[in-house]
Amino acid sequence: MIGYDAEPDAVRAALACVSAAGLQGVVHIEKRSLAEVEAPSGLTGLVVCNPPWGERLGNRRELESLYAALGRQLREHFVGWEAALLCGDTSLGRSLGLRARKRNVLHDGPIECQILRIDVHEPKPRPLGADGKPEPAPVRERSEGARSFANRLSKNKKKLRAWSKREGVSCYRLYEADIPEYNFAVDLYEAADTGLLHAHVQEYAPPDTVDEGDARRRRGEALAVIREDLGLTRERVHIKRRERQKGAKQYAKLDDSGNEFAVREGPARLWVNLDDYLDTGLFLDHRPVRAKLREAAAGKQVLNLFCYTASVSVHAALGRASSTTSVDLSRIYLEWAARNFALNGLACVGPEEDQGYRRSRPAHELIRDDALEWIREQGSRRWDLIFCDPPSFSNSKRMRGTLDVQRDHVEIIHRCAALLRPQGQLWFSTNLRKFKLDIEGLDGLVVEELSGTIPPDFARNKTIHRCWVITRRG
């Protein structure tokens, strides 16, 4: 018998139970995430699982994603096995994508639950059509709303097809809550190495006035349309629930799949992860900003503050910047940034390596620090081009205080401008929808809003971000 759990406390408790029962050597307990669980080589048997039910743990979308991941793991690694899953909500059981051959109903106190008995088989191949290719899966009967959603997806895809092909865009927003009842954002990502298409679906949390059952039905309809009309398997549709995030939740890990793949953006190749975090590692609406900055970066020393995964820095480096410096507080995102540099054949230093450079400063460096504190400590260092895209709000524990871009932007801009060389430029960007730039507070600076930064796939959302080019007067 082999047991796994992702939580260290649960593993310790299980080991204590095994010891108390005198079953050492018979029962093996190990800490593993769901994504790491595989069947022992050459064996078949029974998989028993008691995933969260939703009565006490997790919100609905997180649980649906968890059950979908569990079904995917069974299909990929446990073919020929039997699975017995204790499930407190039959609708969550549907997210597995597996059919139960038997259901046993029982009660845990007031909670009615079921044991789902599942035989895990190889997926049946689709019959071949006259052209020798697999026939498309049958399309379920659709409601009027689902048909409208499908028509809008088709219309948008046709509208964006010529543009994306002409511009070489392989990742773009297909749908942005065009129909209020289907309140989703749908982004398409094409893997650079395989050419496979993935859909990243973000459901905007409905108001309390919307019935949860109706929202769940529309969610199911939308996902079915996306899979069927875009020809995607379940594994290539990645869904998340978008809510207002506070504090550490802004950057909290949602999963531990490690499923990342490279995408192309102009001359750059960049890693994205559609499962493990709320954001994917690449802000698609900033695509034109990155392209413009790449063109402006030649021969310049570039500073990228609040750099996230440093896609801006990679573009600047590919645009022949003489150096880039990327600063962020997150170790995870800086390690991601280092992989982005490596993917493009660019050497960089940091974030954890010794940065007390003895001879010369490297061309591309990653620095883990509070960007606001770091810029206060730079003394005589100067840059030709600074890109600053702070979060709307942050109260990370590693910061000395909080950051509110509306409250703090005047100080941030002045401190960045002080680090510019003569004729240098600060590009300041924000995605705060109601942001108001305090022009009067920016005395001594020349401010010009950068035009042409909203791409066609975000045309419905003209306030997705704003960007200004700021220079010192005189």
From TrEMBL:
It comes from the Bacteria. Residues 238-429 form the S-adenosylmethionine-dependent methyltransferase domain. Residues 2-114 form the Ribosomal RNA large subunit methyltransferase K/L-like methyltransferase domain. Pfam families: Methyltrans_SAM, UPF0020. The keyword Cell membrane does not apply. Keywords: Cytoplasm, Methyltransferase, S-adenosyl-L-methionine, Transferase. One of its GO terms (cellular component) is cytoplasm. Residues 132-145 have a biased composition (Basic and acidic residues). InterPro entries: 23SrRNA_methyltr_KL (IPR017244), DNA_methylase_N6_adenine_CS (IPR002052), RlmKL-like_Mtase (IPR000241), SAM-dep_methyl-trfase (IPR019614), SAM-dependent_MTases_sf (IPR029063). One of its GO terms (molecular function) is rRNA (guanine-N2-)-methyltransferase activity. Residues 123-146 are annotated as: Disordered. NCBIfam families: PRK11783.1. This is 23S rRNA (Guanine-N-2-)-methyltransferase rlmL. It comes from Enhygromyxa salina.
